[in-house]
């Protein structure tokens, strides 16, 4: 249940869906590869758009992209891609749809090299969430040296739509970095969650 009178980060108040996402997911560490791929796919589609636009279409994306099964997505045929480009429920951007397939293929290559994508991506923060201390939204950065490094490495590996801003948003979404402002109720709840890396 979403309690409207809670103090939250200012960006999430426009809808119950946005507040639920803020309260339940944003900033919470994610180590499951399927969920990490879901956020990677959604963040790449979000590039140039608002996150609420993607959240509103999240269930459509889930249905269109086989529950974010990267093993299936990696083998999508041209017919499947054309079907996606006709799906009004998602973002029908040709380059982004094709990048979802390419990124799934490269995601699997990283799994093969590191054992899991989680092991690879969390190594950038030494497997420990970064807790920033922004007092206001203006103090929340759009990029960081770490998101720069992740972006550079993913691009080198053939990933598309993974600029530093996209990857910083991915870090926030998957709890690699906690940017809840200091008076947000969620900020003080995260340290007690005892979410640990499988490593």
UniProtKB/TrEMBL annotation:
Q: Name one Pfam family in it.
A: Adenine_glyco
Checking Gene3D superfamilies in the record gives: Hypothetical protein, domain 2 (1.10.340.30)
Q: Which InterPro entries match?
A: Adenine_glyco, DNA-3mA_glycosylase, DNA_glycosylase, Tag
Superkingdom in the source lineage: Bacteria
Name of the protein described by the UniProt record: DNA-3-methyladenine glycosylase I
